[in-house]
Structure formats: C-alpha cells, structure tokens
Write the structure tokens for this entry.
Amino acid sequence: MTDGPEVALESLGDDIYRIRLSRPERLNALGVGTVQALSACVADASARHARVLLVQGTGRAFSAGADLKERSDMDLAGKLAHNAGIRAAIDSLGAAHCVTVAVINGLALGGGTELALACDMRIAAAGVSLGLTESRIGAFPGAGGTQRLPRLVGVSRALRLMLTGEPVTSEYAQSIGLVDDVVAADALDAHVDSVARLLASRSATALATIKRLVYQGIELPLAAALQVERAALPEILNSIDYAEGLAAFAEKRQPRFTGVVR
C-alpha cells in the first residue's frame, strides 16, 4: 500500500500541474474513489488556471483501467455507476481548456488507454504496452475508446486494436499516431518537463482557442469549420496576449503572456 492520496494534483511551477495516480499496488486501476478524486483534480487544475496539465502514473503502470476487482462484486446498477464515474473523469479531462498531456510511464490498458486518449498529447516511455483490451473479457471500451481511437488512428487500425484486444508497444503506437513521442524511461520526466515548459510559454488564450477550433471543426464540414475559425479571430486579435506578442516581436524579445482562460 502507499501513503497519501490515490490521486493528487501537484504544482510544477510556470502554471504547469500534474495529476499523479498513486495506486501502484493496483497498477493505478480506476476504482470508484479514484475516478472521483481524478475529476476533482481536473476541476482544481482548471480553477487554478493551469496552462499545462500532465497525467502520470506511479510505479510500473500508467493505469491498468477499470478496477475489475472492485467491479466483480457490483450489481448491474453498480457497474453502470462505476463506468459513469470513469466516463465523467475522462470527459472532464477531454473538456479541459488547458493543454493536457498523458505521460505514459508504464502499462496503459483499457480505461488507462481511454484516459490517455482524452488528452491532447501522449508521451510514452519506450517499451511499455498500451491497448483497449476489453474484448478479452467480453466487453467493449465504454469510456470513449470506441469513438476517440478511430478519430486518432483511423477506423481500420482502431477496429483491429479493439477487436483483437491485444496490447501494442509504445513504439508501434507511435507509428500509427496513437502516441506522439517515445523516449527512454530514464529520460521521460526530463523530456516531458521540456515539452510542458515550452507549451506553458505560449499564450494560454491562443492554445485554448486552437484546441476549441480543432475539436469543434473536425466534427463539421470544412466550409462550416472555416466559418467557426473566422468567427474566433476578433477576440484573439483584440486580446492582451496578441498585443504583447506584437510588441515582443517588434522589440525582438520573448513575449510575456499574462492572459488566462476562465
């Protein structure tokens, strides 16, 4: 067992926060209490106007997914409520205005992969296993996996991963676009820190707008999506961060962005 909370929000400075899953003895499985705490941490990060939010596991797993040991004793209502809690936590992460990064330090299966899919970026340690493995126990990915994975890697690849239920390596995951970066395990934290601080140096307002336009636009016909993009221009061009960006460009210095997303 571990001391301290199962899920904790940590400040890393520069408006960068990390949600740490700390149930290593259960491979950071998503129990009822775990997902409630996860949702609370996402809300807390938002309230603190996080620019970058990392999600990372403790020990040898990112997350092994739903806590099936807990679920085995539940009736149907309990199982559905457990799934609803997992979905709510994952959806809250997907809806975050800040940039979210899954730091896949180890095994990520089932709901653990679904948790990573809800993030904007995924950085994994070399040689770790990922997969939507629910078909192996007679289920399907019910926390967004059947919808988010095809949008990320395409229908055929997503179906193969879900129908076989077989995990893949982080290297293969990178080759199909499921993972953005793969780095040696002992270099993972340093690499993630570098990426996070680069992102945090950008305008929070601009990053949140980019996220919104991409996620809204991908669901629309191109002509409608372009209209959504154009409609966002006045607010951005009138923002304090854009004024600072122009001033910094003229003065040949790094911009000091102060805008926050509320």
Notes: The CA atoms of residues 218 and 225 lie 7 Å apart. The longest strand covers residues 7-13.
